[in-house]
User: What shape does this take?
Amino acid sequence: MVMGGTATPALMAALAITTKPLFFFRVTAAVAKAGVRVCFFVVGFPRTLKSKNKNMSQSKPLCLLAAVVLSSFLSVAASAQNYRILLSNDDGIDSPLLHTLYHALVALPDTEVLVSAPADNQSGSSQSSGVSPLRVSRYELEGEFIGYAVAGRPADAVRFAVVEFGREQPFDLVVSGINRGANVGDVSHLSGTVGAAMEGLYHGIPAIAVSEDTSGVDTRASARFAASLVRRYQRQGALEGIVLSVNIPRDELRGVVVRPMGDSYLYTSDYELIEDNGDERVYERVRDIVPSDNQDSDTWAWQQGYITLTPLQFDWTAHQLIDEIESWSLSLPD
Assistant: This one.
């Protein structure tokens, strides 16, 4: 096989034992998974073998040659199929937590990572969308291009990358984070980190959302844990139709548990007036931390020092109430 103008040693060896004249034709194979075009040559049978009078034993070297060619092509195709990850967040593309996670993901074997994240902080934006048009800028980290800063919300950043850069080379996974602040319990509904992951799911791409406490956390360890989950997905397949929400607490970690969504650990207790300009006033929200009393929930486990994993999905339907509401026998208004 000839690739990029260079013959492989295996092919040269096969050619050395083939004494009959050969004819060639050029084939271009698209390895769609990685978006790589591989140009190679397929070695055809000698014209002389078309004659029924020739000894068919002459075809043995050609069978060996064909096997070498096929084996080489399959090897190149397999190596070209990198696992494509779209990385985003809601804290903004300048977040050092995102950068730490980026470094952990690009260190995985056979992995390609593209960042598409909000240009500035968009915390609490859930899966909402901003206004058009979008302003998008190339972004470099330590002098290396890693992706794009999108002047929009987390869902905008993910949607833009999926449509513009995932059409011909689909992403295998969306990873959102690492977020500064936990997204356990009902807080998940407000989270732009979870919203970015949900946007990936909206486009049929499995996703992982990663969040950690605001202090007292080893972010590099959080990134390594997230990368280990990605590696598991890479090897064994992702959870289809699911956002896996990961939350990492502060201080000493007691273990890893899987729990359903629980109650909210954040409660808005007041709005403090910080500026009064007559017709316009400026308020600062006052939030309290609320301990959970539901020991079966992710909120409680996270507050007790456990890394929590919670599988999330789009369906918010209260299925147990479908029959009851149907029994109301509602009709159109007169």
Remarks:
- Residues 191 and 286 are 18 Å apart (CA to CA).
- Helices lie at 9-16, 60-80, 96-106, 154-165, 192-202, 219-236, 298-303, 322-326.
